[in-house]
Amino acid sequence: MKWITRERPKIDRIACPWLIKNFVDKEATFIYVPKEQVFEKAKELQAIPYDIPGAEYSHVGDLCTFDYILNKHKLQDPTLLQLATIIRGADTNCMDLAPQCAGLWAISAGLSYLYHDDQEQLIAGMKIYDALYAWAKHVQNEKHTWNPHL
Questions:
Q1: What residues does the ChrB C-terminal domain cover (predicted)?
Q2: What distances in angstroms separate CA 114 from CA 72, 102, 107, 118, one per listed residue?
């Protein structure tokens, strides 16, 4: 399936493709266009619009699009639910939801600065979410204990 959203992605517009490719539709493709073209191009390309007001797949109340996809597709993996909190905090400027929110925002803003091609940014961003998922699932309790002063 094709998915479409507004250009220059940040938090949710990278996290959602990661979630979709890994847990909903491995063959999904993602298209970025100027925001005023999303719905027109969605019809033309038979793509699902996401993370834009007026789309089914978008923010609902205090929840972001990543949350909507989890709920819509009944994804209840505890690791994904933890990521949802981090992503929601970073995407909605509620940095107090989890300690990782501000870091995720910083990394996302940095990616947007480094990459001017949205598809290249998506590829790089997918690796960030792979790493965040791996941390949450496997090593979040690992502590960095090296101290050069000991």
A1: 3-135
A2: 33, 18, 10, 11
Q: How far apart are CA 36 and CA 87, in angstroms?
A: 25
The chain-wide mean pLDDT, for the chain, equals: 96
| pTM beyond cutoff 0.90 | yes
Any residues with CB less than 8 A from the CB of 69 and at least 6 apart, and which? 16, 19, 20, 24, 57, 75
In a domain, 76, yes or no: yes
Q: Which two tokens stand for residue 27?
A: 């063959």
CA atoms within 13 A on the CB side of 126: 13
List all residues 6 or more positions away from 98 whose beta carbon is below 8 Å from its beta carbon: 82, 85, 86, 89
Which stretches of the chain score pLDDT less than 50? none
pLDDT recorded at residue 150: 65
Domain range holding 132?
2-137
Largest CA distance in the chain: 63
Has residue 150 been placed in a domain?
no
Number of domains in the chain: 1
Q: Is residue 148 part of a domain?
A: no
3-state secondary structure of 42: helix
